[in-house]
Amino acid sequence: MKKSVFLGALTVAGLAAGASAAATLDDVKARGKLNCGVTTGLVGFAAPDENGRWEGFDVGLCRAVAAAVLGDPDAVEFVPTTGKTRFTALASGEIDMLARNTTWTFSRDNDLKFDFVGINYYDGQGFMVPKSLGVSSAKELDGATVCIQTGTTTELNLADYFRANNISYEPVPIETNAEGQQQYIAGACDAYTTDASGLAATRAAFENPGDHVILPEIVSKEPLGPLVRHGDNEWGDVVRWTLNALIAAEEYGVTSANVGDMSAQAGDNPEVNRLLGTEGNLGEMIGLDKDWAKRAIMAGGNYGELFEKNIGENTPIGLARGLNAQWTDGGLLYSPPFR
Amino acid sequence: MTAMTDPQKESFRLSMLLNDTRYRSYTFQFIALVALIAAFAYLGSNLAANLRAAGLNISYEFLEEPSNYDINQTLIEYTSRSSHWRAAVVGVLNTLLVAFLACVTATIFGVIAGVLRLSNNWLVRKLMAAYVEAFRNVPVLIWIIIIFTIMTAVLPAPRDFRGDEAEASMVLGAFAFTNRGVYIPKPIFEPLGWVVLFVFVASIIGAVLYRRYATKLLYDTGKLLPMGWPTVAILFLPTIVAYFILGMPISLEYPELGGFNFRGGIQILGSLIALWFALAIYTGAFIAENVRAGILSVSRGQTEAAASLGLRPRRIMNLVVLPQALRVIVPPLISNYLNITKNSSLAIAVGYMDITGTLGGITLNQTGRAIESVLLLMLFYLLISLAISAVMNVYNNSIRLKER
């Protein structure tokens, strides 16, 4: 397996040799399809539904980019990646962008030579324990056995947190969220730790969600966002501003329902006019046409619509907006101006 | 004086490389070698060019940096501040530990099952056949997961041991079987305790020497010394005497429930047990077939000849059949040991931190140095496998047919 991965990487590197690093936008247009890396399946963020159609919060972003660039939100080839394969897939050119709960860190940005184009979910690492343990703070977890998904930044945060608080623990490394769930329920570990959004999604799937508490400590910052290869700034701008367009659309009240009317003619708000192409030529500046943002918003709705439909409080995942609310509502979402 | 002229030396011509059967095979081998080197050179230069284009490089500097992650089973001292290199070494030791345990256990299972498959008892024979067929024909990954799942689902969690009316209790007050692993008492050596241990090791050597001496005496003079009870006496008497004279310097630390887990004693991780037994029963089935083939390869005439000399069945097996059978058994046994070592990389399925889990898993992920890590991983497995082969080949040479 190790060998095949290596040879696979070599082959991919060989195949991608012809494609120069700086023309992903042209490649995508010529191919007529966007290759988008997603998780192998995390309900709410990216998972195939019963018809085999990929759905989710991250998937929505892939579709928005495909709609903006190619005019068709379905012109996406979803490439499932694991925590281990995701960076190799992106670096080798197998995928054009990665939208997969990936934490923006310094070394990933610089050492691995990727560009994070923005943040689509502000997350943080938390702990879940059975109520019966009587634990009310993560600092009381001295000597506990903790289940943790291997290959994630949470693994490092966990080590840092326990070391900083001078308490001991025993890590139980697991490969997938499903496996962690099973181990935790069987009592093979006292606590389960991952991003708070993941904990909420996991707890929602339990038989008795009320028997488990999520401890108040959030021990890390986990800004999750889409990323592209370093060095292709044109392509990076396309993905960055597609994400910004979705966020700005929510801020200005542009939804998938009214975007058609609003883009038919210039309205009162010049920012919306520039966003939707009824004024100015922002689309041309990033190598697209003037309707790019309109198509991106029509694909799955603005940021708020995507959130509510996939992971919001009315879904089984049941996440509150929290930090991910618009800055006008006290959250951190803040799109630079479209001008 | 007789003059013998050498046949005239035919001068070498280039066409002989193709037409002369003496040289033709070399030509083709040379062409194949050049093609192979060219292929690898192409792949290598391609890789280097692509890495350069992406602004990346091959560098092993990350091995010196702190790993920042914890490992649940460390045979040497290790913290999250240790380097990636040390994490890799911890992984190698974990790999070697599970490989060693599984090799020993698989050999025991295999020899027992292989011999019993030739038993005259119909039931025993069929049971062993069922074992071999069932375990050999299901992938080892499935066995690992089955054993691990059964362990976590069936055995009680540590919290079930708590309270006055606990659902679970410790066996003999010393062994705790939980779904996180098995806890056993740990011997604590005071300084003099090491002396006792030394005496015991010396006794083992003494017992071996005694048996050699007895065998030599038997062959030289025909005098038969008793073997059984003196061996036991040499093994245990001095140790027991030393233990009490020195004031019982070895004590046992029993595991106790404290906080979330058992503390004290030795913890054998559930993942280690699952991996160990899955590898052992799986490979044991293959070894059983090797043993059976080895025994069947010794011609029946040998057994009959030994029987006609008046040897008892056990002696026939030990002195006549097995020594000859070993020559057939050992070479495939080596490859089975190699398989165990390589299959131990499936450890990640149950979260056992072997070399694939540390260097090829977490380190690879956290540093993103995939090519470097995988190359290093390949090197480690290659070295481990070659070392096992070398050791086993020495053994194979020592038991092969000695032509005098």
**Largest sheet: number of strands, sense, barrel closure of chain A:** 5 strands, mixed
Kindly report the oligomeric state of this protein. Answer: heterodimer
Helical content of chain A (DSSP H or I, runs of 4+):
25-40%
Number of strands of chain A: 14
Going across the biggest sheet of chain B, name each strand in turn.
1-2-7
Q: Tally the helices of chain A: what do you get?
A: 14
Query: What series of H and E elements makes up the topology of chain B?
Result: HHHHHEEEHHEEEEHHHHH
Number of strands of chain B: 7
Instruction: Output mean pLDDT of chain B.
Output: 86
Q: What features would you describe in this structure?
A:
The complex is a heterodimer of chains A (339) and B (404). Chain A is α/β, with parallel strands linked by helices and 339 residues long. Chain A is 39% helix and 16% strand. Chain A is built from 14 helices and 14 strands. In chain A, the strands form 5 sheets. In chain A, strands 10-9-11-8-12 form a 5-stranded mixed sheet. Chain A has a 3-stranded parallel sheet with strand order 4-1-5. In chain A, helix 3 packs across helix 9, helix 3 packs antiparallel against helix 13 and helix 9 crosses helix 13. Chain A is globular and about 60 Å long. In chain B, strand 5 and strand 6 form a beta hairpin. In chain B, helix 3 runs antiparallel to helix 10, helix 5 packs across helix 8 and helix 11 runs antiparallel to helix 12. Chain B is globular.
Structural descriptors:
heterodimer; A: 339 residues; alpha/beta; five-stranded mixed sheet; three-stranded parallel sheet; 14 strands; 39% helix; disordered N terminus; B: 404 residues; mainly alpha; 12 helices; 7 strands
